[in-house]
């Protein structure tokens, strides 16, 4: 029975202990954790002051940002205006036209033409480009291949090809100029005064008659006993020239050629 009263009294004791703990806790909190009521006013004033400061700083930052944006917009607009303006490049004054002298007929040379063909006489000044000499040539439609006066004709081989070395006379002198040309072919020429044919070497030479320039085949032969050192045959005349029978020197070589050579016929 004593034990029953003991068990029944335990809850009452626990309640008393719990109440005492709460009273002690309240005293401690008032000393260590609770803010005195006298300080609440100061704390509120400090909070309000800090809040006002933050608001002011935010406003100032907003103003500064707006000023920066305005400055950037102004700079950007200035650049855009400069691009839009597109300053024109400085232009140089026009170069005055140079007066050029028209080429005269003598400077260019002269050769009359009929339907695109050069009209030549029975005798013409003939310019041999290499070595740069003027000969008096006979224009002969009866000859098949053109011919040039050549001496000391010597055949030789070069790089597996047949070549020929020969001397051409310098008109109105005793001098000769040596030339070397690759052989184009060989031909057999039969003279009217003899029954035997003569084998001749054929080479290509560049020449001029009047203002006409051409490369054609020429046979090499000694023409020292003939009146003309060059003969123009049908291989040159064909489709290129027409002969005005009874006329001589129907063409005229360019002035630059005639100036450097005084051996041609004026």
UniProtKB/TrEMBL annotation:
SUPFAM superfamilies: Acid proteases. InterPro entries: Asp_endopeptidase (IPR008503), Peptidase_aspartic_dom_sf (IPR021109). Residues 119-250 form the Retropepsin-like aspartic endopeptidase domain. Pfam families: Zn_protease (PF05618). Coiled coil: none annotated. This is Retropepsin-like aspartic endopeptidase domain-containing protein.
């Amino acid at each position: 029975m004593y034990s029953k009263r003991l068990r029944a009294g335990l809850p009452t004791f626990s309640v008393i202990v719990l109440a005492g703990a709460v009273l002690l806790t309240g005293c401690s909190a008032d000393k260590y954790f609770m803010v005195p009521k006298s300080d609440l006013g100061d704390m509120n004033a400090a909070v309000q002051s800090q809040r006002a400061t933050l608001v002011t700083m935010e406003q100032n930052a907003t103003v500064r940002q707006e000023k920066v944006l305005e400055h950037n917009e102004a700079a950007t607009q200035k650049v855009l205006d400069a691009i839009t303006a597109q300053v024109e490049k400085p232009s140089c004054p026009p170069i005055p036209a140079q007066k050029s002298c028209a080429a005269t007929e003598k400077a260019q040379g002269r050769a009359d033409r009929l339907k695109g063909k050069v009209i030549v006489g029975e005798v013409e000044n003939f310019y041999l480009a290499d070595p740069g000499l003027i000969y008096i040539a006979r224009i002969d439609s009866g000859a098949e291949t053109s011919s040039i006066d050549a001496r000391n004709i010597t055949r030789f081989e070069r790089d597996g090809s047949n070549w020929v070395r020969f001397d051409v006379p310098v008109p109105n002198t005793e001098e000769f100029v040596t030339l070397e040309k690759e052989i184009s072919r060989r031909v057999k020429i039969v003279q009217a005064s003899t029954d035997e044919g003569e084998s001749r070497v054929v080479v290509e030479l560049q020449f001029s008659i009047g203002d006409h320039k051409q490369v054609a085949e020429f046979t090499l032969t000694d023409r020292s006993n003939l009146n003309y050192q060059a003969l123009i045959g049908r291989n040159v005349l064909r489709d290129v020239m027409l002969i005005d029978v009874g006329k001589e020197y129907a063409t005229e070589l360019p002035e630059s050629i005639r100036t450097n050579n005084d051996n041609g016929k004026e």
